[in-house]
Amino acid sequence: MSASFFARRAVALRAAPLRASMASPARMLRTSAVLRADSHAPPVIQGEGGKPGEVPTDEAQSTGLERFELLGKLQGVDVFDMEPLESDRLGTKKDPIVVKSLFPTRIIGCSGSPAGSHDTIWLHLNLETEFHRCPECGSVSKLDFQGDPALLEGGHH
Asked: Where are the stretches annotated Disordered (predicted)?
Protein backbone atom coordinates (compact mmCIF):
# COMPACT_ATOMS: atom_id res chain seq x y z
CA MET A 1 0.00 0.00 0.00
CA SER A 2 1.26 3.41 -0.91
CA ALA A 3 1.66 6.47 1.29
CA SER A 4 -1.02 8.25 -0.72
CA PHE A 5 -3.51 5.51 0.28
CA PHE A 6 -2.87 6.26 3.94
CA ALA A 7 -3.08 10.02 3.33
CA ARG A 8 -6.46 9.63 1.56
CA ARG A 9 -7.68 7.36 4.34
CA ALA A 10 -6.69 9.89 7.02
CA VAL A 11 -8.50 12.69 5.16
CA ALA A 12 -11.60 10.50 4.79
CA LEU A 13 -11.56 9.69 8.51
CA ARG A 14 -11.28 13.37 9.45
CA ALA A 15 -14.07 14.33 7.06
CA ALA A 16 -16.45 11.51 8.03
CA PRO A 17 -19.20 12.58 10.42
CA LEU A 18 -19.38 10.76 13.74
CA ARG A 19 -22.56 8.74 14.00
CA ALA A 20 -24.53 9.20 17.22
CA SER A 21 -24.45 5.46 17.89
CA MET A 22 -20.63 5.51 17.84
CA ALA A 23 -20.21 8.53 20.11
CA SER A 24 -19.89 7.85 23.80
CA PRO A 25 -21.99 9.96 26.20
CA ALA A 26 -18.83 11.50 27.66
CA ARG A 27 -17.68 12.53 24.19
CA MET A 28 -21.03 14.17 23.44
CA LEU A 29 -20.78 16.40 26.53
CA ARG A 30 -17.80 18.58 25.74
CA THR A 31 -17.05 21.43 28.12
CA SER A 32 -15.23 23.45 25.46
CA ALA A 33 -18.56 24.15 23.75
CA VAL A 34 -19.93 25.51 27.03
CA LEU A 35 -16.86 27.67 27.50
CA ARG A 36 -17.29 29.13 24.01
CA ALA A 37 -20.96 30.00 24.58
CA ASP A 38 -21.62 33.73 24.93
CA SER A 39 -23.09 33.46 28.42
CA HIS A 40 -20.24 31.32 29.77
CA ALA A 41 -17.26 32.88 28.04
CA PRO A 42 -14.05 32.97 30.10
CA PRO A 43 -12.48 36.37 30.56
CA VAL A 44 -10.03 37.39 27.87
CA ILE A 45 -6.66 37.93 29.49
CA GLN A 46 -4.50 39.15 26.65
CA GLY A 47 -3.08 42.42 25.48
CA GLU A 48 -3.84 44.18 22.23
CA GLY A 49 -0.52 43.05 20.77
CA GLY A 50 2.17 45.07 19.08
CA LYS A 51 1.49 47.50 16.26
CA PRO A 52 3.24 46.87 12.93
CA GLY A 53 6.75 48.27 12.92
CA GLU A 54 6.93 48.67 16.74
CA VAL A 55 8.40 46.54 19.48
CA PRO A 56 5.49 45.62 21.79
CA THR A 57 5.63 46.39 25.50
CA ASP A 58 5.01 43.79 28.19
CA GLU A 59 1.51 45.20 28.71
CA ALA A 60 0.74 44.82 25.01
CA GLN A 61 2.01 41.28 24.48
CA SER A 62 1.52 39.46 27.79
CA THR A 63 -1.26 36.88 28.11
CA GLY A 64 -2.77 34.54 30.68
CA LEU A 65 -1.24 34.32 34.15
CA GLU A 66 1.69 36.52 33.16
CA ARG A 67 -0.74 39.32 32.22
CA PHE A 68 -2.79 38.74 35.38
CA GLU A 69 0.35 39.15 37.50
CA LEU A 70 1.55 42.18 35.50
CA LEU A 71 -1.80 44.00 35.83
CA GLY A 72 -1.83 43.21 39.55
CA LYS A 73 1.66 44.67 39.99
CA LEU A 74 0.61 47.83 38.14
CA GLN A 75 -2.20 48.21 40.70
CA GLY A 76 0.15 47.44 43.60
CA VAL A 77 -1.35 44.02 44.36
CA ASP A 78 0.72 40.86 44.83
CA VAL A 79 -1.77 38.50 43.15
CA PHE A 80 0.14 35.33 44.06
CA ASP A 81 0.85 36.37 47.68
CA MET A 82 4.58 35.65 47.49
CA GLU A 83 5.39 37.13 50.89
CA PRO A 84 7.26 34.72 53.17
CA LEU A 85 5.41 33.20 56.11
CA GLU A 86 5.80 34.77 59.52
CA SER A 87 9.10 33.76 61.08
CA ASP A 88 9.38 36.38 63.82
CA ARG A 89 7.37 34.26 66.25
CA LEU A 90 6.52 30.67 67.06
CA GLY A 91 2.98 29.65 66.25
CA THR A 92 0.84 28.23 69.05
CA LYS A 93 -2.52 26.43 69.04
CA LYS A 94 -4.16 29.67 70.18
CA ASP A 95 -2.27 31.78 67.62
CA PRO A 96 -0.96 29.53 64.79
CA ILE A 97 0.99 30.61 61.72
CA VAL A 98 -1.85 30.80 59.15
CA VAL A 99 -0.98 29.56 55.65
CA LYS A 100 -3.43 30.60 52.91
CA SER A 101 -3.88 28.13 50.08
CA LEU A 102 -6.02 27.68 46.97
CA PHE A 103 -5.51 23.92 47.29
CA PRO A 104 -6.55 21.57 50.12
CA THR A 105 -2.89 20.65 50.76
CA ARG A 106 0.28 22.72 50.94
CA ILE A 107 3.91 21.98 51.70
CA ILE A 108 5.76 24.59 53.75
CA GLY A 109 9.24 24.80 55.17
CA CYS A 110 9.87 25.72 58.82
CA SER A 111 13.31 27.08 59.65
CA GLY A 112 12.49 28.11 63.22
CA SER A 113 12.08 31.44 64.93
CA PRO A 114 14.01 33.58 64.31
CA ALA A 115 14.38 32.37 60.73
CA GLY A 116 17.34 30.08 60.22
CA SER A 117 17.55 28.84 63.81
CA HIS A 118 17.32 25.22 62.60
CA ASP A 119 17.54 23.33 59.32
CA THR A 120 14.45 23.55 57.15
CA ILE A 121 11.83 20.97 58.09
CA TRP A 122 9.18 20.38 55.43
CA LEU A 123 5.61 20.10 56.69
CA HIS A 124 2.68 18.80 54.67
CA LEU A 125 -0.34 20.89 55.68
CA ASN A 126 -3.79 19.52 54.90
CA LEU A 127 -7.39 19.89 56.00
CA GLU A 128 -7.56 16.50 57.74
CA THR A 129 -5.48 17.80 60.66
CA GLU A 130 -6.38 21.19 62.11
CA PHE A 131 -2.90 22.05 63.43
CA HIS A 132 0.53 20.97 62.22
CA ARG A 133 3.53 21.21 64.55
CA CYS A 134 7.19 21.43 63.55
CA PRO A 135 9.04 18.58 65.27
CA GLU A 136 12.19 20.71 65.68
CA CYS A 137 10.96 23.99 67.22
CA GLY A 138 7.31 23.22 68.03
CA SER A 139 5.85 26.05 65.93
CA VAL A 140 2.20 25.42 65.01
CA SER A 141 0.81 26.08 61.52
CA LYS A 142 -2.73 25.95 60.22
CA LEU A 143 -3.99 25.72 56.63
CA ASP A 144 -6.53 28.36 55.57
CA PHE A 145 -8.19 26.87 52.47
CA GLN A 146 -9.53 29.61 50.18
CA GLY A 147 -9.96 27.63 46.98
CA ASP A 148 -12.77 26.02 45.03
CA PRO A 149 -14.92 23.77 47.27
CA ALA A 150 -15.14 21.25 44.39
CA LEU A 151 -11.50 20.36 45.14
CA LEU A 152 -12.60 19.05 48.53
CA GLU A 153 -14.98 16.62 46.85
CA GLY A 154 -12.37 15.25 44.47
CA GLY A 155 -13.17 17.58 41.56
CA HIS A 156 -10.29 18.39 39.22
CA HIS A 157 -9.64 21.39 36.99
From this structure: 39-59
Which has more pLDDT, 87 or 22?
Answer: 87
Closest by CA to 137, choosing from 117, 157, 155, is: 117
Total domains in the fold of the chain: 2
Binding-site residues: 110, 118, 134, 137
pLDDT at 34 over 80: no
The residue range of the domain holding 34 is 1-82
Q: Which residues are annotated as a binding site for Zn(2+)?
A: 110, 118, 134, 137
- Establish if 66 belongs to a structural domain: yes
Q: Which CATH number characterizes residue 146's domain? A: 2.60.260.40
